[in-house]
Amino acid sequence: MPGWKDDVDVLVHEGKISVPYSWTVGSTLSRFYCELRDNAKIWANRCPSCGKVFAPPKIKCIDCYEDLHDWVELPGTGTVETYTVVRYEEPVLHPRKAPFAYGIIKMDGADTGMVHFIGDVDPEEVKAGMRVEAVFEDEREGNILDIKHFRPIT
Amino acid sequence: MEKVAIIGVGYTKYDRNSPLTFAEMVFEATTKAIKDAGISKDDVDNIVSASSDFWDGRTISSMAISDAANAYGKDITTVEGDGTFAALYGMMRILSGSYGVTVVCAHHKGTESSMNGITNCAFDPLVERKLGIDAISSAALQARRYMDKYGLLEEQFALVSVKNHGNAMRNPLALLPMEITVEDVMNSRKIADPLKLLDCSPVTDGACTLILAAERNAKKLTTNKKRVWMKGVGHCSDAFRLGDRDLADTRALAKAAKRAYAMAGISDPGKEIDFAEVYDAFSYMEPLWLEGLGICDDGMGCEYLERGWFDAGGRLPVNVSGGRLSANPVMSAGLYAMAEAVQQLRGEAKKHQLRGVETALVHGINGMCGQSHCVWVLGK
Questions:
Q1: Which residues are CB-contacts of A87 (< 8 A; sequence separation ≥ 6)?
Q2: Mean pLDDT, rounded, of chain B
Q3: What residues contact B151, with CB distance under 8 A and at least 6 apart?
Q4: Where are the domains of chain B?
Q5: How far out from the chain centre does Cα A79 lie?
Q6: DSSP codes joined into one string, A73-96
Q7: What residue segments make up the domains of chain A, in order of their start?
Q8: Per-residue confidence (pLDDT) for residue A1, from 0 to 100
Q9: Which of B136, B189, B247 is closest, CB to CB, to A82?
Q10: In chain B, which residues have their Cβ closer than 8 Å to the Cβ of A114?
Q11: Are the CB atoms for A105 and A120 separated by under 8 Å?
Q12: DSSP strand E in chain B: where?
């Protein structure tokens, strides 16, 4: 009989998917993260064909599709290309409490931008074009959060 | 090349916390589309589904909806991306000569999970994911870059929200019909600067199905009134990492659009396209993508918006449905936009029907900040 659906108490089953992963970092990003972890240095790689410098490093040049065997050490300074101040809380996702600023930082010596936090500054004061430098964590584990954030160069 | 037509459309009403399961939604949309085409389920031999395993909370999500999509005893294949890309794959399978009448379906229930958690998982777990970035915060980075590059104002983006929510007032399907002002948008809750709540699309549930057929089948099975031709399509991808792109550069979309226009024989899109459904999950995206689509010059989208060009009564109405800002079932959003275009071209759009429209543009994206674009030209 049609119409029976109107009387159904439609249930909701709560659930959560939690699956462990062990992601291989690969030789290119492993070298990048080992330099961060062991020496607090930011390294990038360069395309032998077009000269484009990638930070974070990539396995292939996106333009030339060439292997990137040339490594260059960056000074750790750069310029904010764009930014946002995040106002919402995501305690599981966000490593810090809102409000905080994300930026895309064009590192000096690199041709690509790096997404990261902009800190040690009132988020309201962040602007595109701002000169920043990397601040490293004291305890480093070999991942992107070994850079604590980028802070304005005063 | 043989022509392919859209001969049927069907969809569920947009909802939040829909009481329907994924399969019930797909069944409803597909049944309606088959009925709309006036064909039998047995006329179909090919099913292309669009869904995301993360959103569905299950692996091989297309398998779970295959019976509902009329795939029992038939062939089903899946696109993990927006429905516009599934329609492209459906068309290609028909043009391969191996398949006949095709169901393209997409389903999405944004309200069953966590938008931010799932879109965070679109980022590289080895790099950006640990920063907690997601669809909203990355869109905010793009919006700011677009503003800074061309000297645009938040008030100009707000006008997109005002227009599209206003358009939704005439579309009973839309989830968020609202008469609002630029001030309302500016005063809405700050989410991630420069984006406020009313610059962002609502989390939405919905399934949509299109029926595709090659010319010989379309003419055999349907009346002329039902047929809308897939006149041109183009797609193109930009770099995965946000930092490898200039986020205000629309070159991937420009390439996709160029291919679609060439296939459809369009040389001046601004004049030859009668209306467009453009991806507007965030307000700033509409003018940005209109620039990429070649409808206006780079940096001019907001100025033309202010002049009323893209209003329902303007020279090129954009998102008369209310757009994604008024309902955004992510994976199926592009198919809904195509269904909207089909109904406009057939003259079935009722209260928000545009007059004398013959050529439509529909745009869908995949990936963060429009990494990949699919552009359709549809026509009678």
A1: A98, A99, B189, B190, B191, B192, B193
A2: 97
A3: none
A4: 4-114+203-225
A5: 15
A6: EE-SEEEEEEEEEE-S--TTT-SS
A7: 22-152
A8: 76
A9: B247
A10: 243
A11: no
A12: 4-11, 44-50, 75-79, 101-109, 190-192, 195-196, 205-214, 228-237, 275-277, 359-366, 372-379
Contact in structure between A98 and A123 (CB atoms under 8 Å): no
Residue B152's closest CA among B304, B371, B362?
A: B304
Pick the CATH number of B4-114+203-225 from 3.90.460.10, 1.10.357.20, 3.40.47.10, 3.30.530.20: 3.40.47.10
Residue in B230, B207, B223 with CA at minimum distance from that of residue B39? B223
Q: Which residues pair with B104 in a beta bridge?
A: B48, B210
Tell me if chain A has a CB within 8 Å of the CB of B368: no
Whole-number Å distance between alpha carbons of B296 and B139? 21
Q: Can you read off the two tokens belonging to residue B355?
A: 């007059």
Q: How is residue B127 written in tokens?
A: 């790099």
User: Which among B126, B133, B141 has the least Cβ separation from residue A82?
Assistant: B141
pLDDT tens by residue, B303-348: 999 999 999 999 999 999 999 999 999 999 999 999 999 999 999 9
Average of per-residue pLDDT across B84-111: 97
ipTM of the shown complex: 0.97
- Best probe of the B interface among A22, A96, A104, A147, by most B CBs < 10 A, is A104
Place of tokens 């398949």: B99
Cβ neighbors of B328 (< 8 A, separation 6 or more) are: B110, B201, B202, B203, B204, B281
